[in-house]
Amino acid sequence: MKQRIITGVVAAALFLPIVYYGGFPLILLTYFLATVGLYELIKMKNLNIFSIHGILSILFLWVLIFPEKYSDILDTFYYSKTELCIVILLLLLTYTVITKNRFTFEDVSFSILSSLYVGIGFYFFFETRVDGGLVYILYSLFMIWATDSGAYFIGKALGRRKLWPEISPNKTIEGSIGGVVCAVIVAILFVLLTDIKGSIIAITIVLSVFGQIGDLVQSAFKRHFNVKDSGKILPGHGGILDRFDSLIFVWPILHLFHLWG
């Protein structure tokens, strides 16, 4: 626990100032986090990121998370993000032929879906900062941190009924509900202290639940590939996906609500 707290404090001290500043440093941070997250997923399947298919997967990811505000750069080359992604997909499929099926259609599917899973989440991380401003990023961060902490401590104190033992044996229904309650408390504080408006309580409940689903999705990945953590970059926490699994689900859904403010 001590190592976990130290890592959390150091990571927050590095992460939050960049989020506050925004702009190009935030783009670099987004690309770094997303790339490491994709590396962790590909490594789970024992694929090599430093290979032709690994590089193509990274390129797919980088195109996907390219910020909307800079889309005019792509326009100068007369290509859209969709068209570039299609080209990369075709190259990955071609690679199955070149390797005589050592790199299979299943591997292509895994690479593309992994890039989409990681990319969509981190794309909306940057877009939330641009469209909604700092307050919505802070809201999402503190809301998920409250959900995770509430689920852990309340589950440990009061948990009796297992939430989804086949996927994550330690999570309980009581902990899950406690996480939602803690998230709602954070939401109320944001209403009182910021200019966030709208049906924030209802939206927070939805986001907290989907944040927990994101956590379970990552647990399912790890159980399927028989790994404890997605990576080791964050001592006490694991990898980037271990830390951002909930937020990868929350940021796109936050945008589906059109930042409601």
Write the layout of secondary structure elements.
Blueprint: H1 2-21, H2 23-44, H3 52-64, H4 71-75, H5 81-98, H6 105-131, H7 134-158, E1 162-164, E2 168-172, H8 173-193, H9 200-225, H10 240-256
Antiparallel strand pairs: 1-2
Describe the global form: globular
* Count of individual helical segments: 10
Order of helices and strands: HHHHHHHEEHHH
Ends apart, CA distance between termini: 37 Å
**How many strands?**
2
The portion of residues forming beta strands comes to: under 5%
The main sheet comes to:
2 strands, antiparallel
Percent of residues in helices: over 70%
The structural domain count equals 1
Structural class determined from secondary elements = mainly alpha
Mean pLDDT: 90
Radius of gyration: 19 Å
- Please give the order of strands in the largest beta sheet: 1-2
Unreliable stretches (pLDDT < 50, length at least 5) are none
